[in-house]
Amino acid sequence: MHKTVFREIKIKLPSDIADTISDQEIVNLLMDKAFTTAEYYHSKCKSFEEKYGMDFSAFKKKIETAQEEVFSEWDDMLVWEGFVLSYDEWKKKIEELKSCRESLQH
Fold first, then answer.
1. How far is 66 from 44, CA to CA, in rounded Å?
2. Which has more confidence, 80 or 101?
3. Has residue 4 been placed in a domain?
4. For position 5, what pLDDT does the model report?
């Protein structure tokens, strides 16, 4: 597992908002966005799993070893792969934000 590198950023907010929101709350808002985005990509993956009755790696193997190319399945594989990669990336972002949240507590 890689070590998360933190970078401090500075944002300007209207003073009435800045007075009422903490760093922890901002990180929680980012966590909400990360969870929502990850869930979106996960749901897209699930729709392909239901359509083809298998997970992505099994489908990819099936397509790559098929005797005949079915272009619509190749298209689906490329789109599905994009969803899988995006889902994995957002899962990593969630873990990084968890680390960030923990660092704020110490």
1. 24
2. 80
3. no
4. 79
Domain extent at residue 71: 45-106
User: How far is CA 28 from each of CA 10, 19, 38, 43, 54, rounded to the nearest angstrom?
Assistant: 17, 17, 15, 22, 34
Q: How many CB atoms lie within 10 A of CB 97?
A: 19
Report pTM.
0.86
Beta strands in the chain (DSSP E): none
In a domain, 17, yes or no: no
Question: Number of folded domains in the chain?
Answer: 1
The contacts of residue 2 (CB under 8 Å, 6+ apart) are none
Euclidean distance between CA atoms 106 and 101, whole angstroms: 9
How far, in Å, are 19, 35, 42 from residue 85 at the CA level? 38, 15, 10
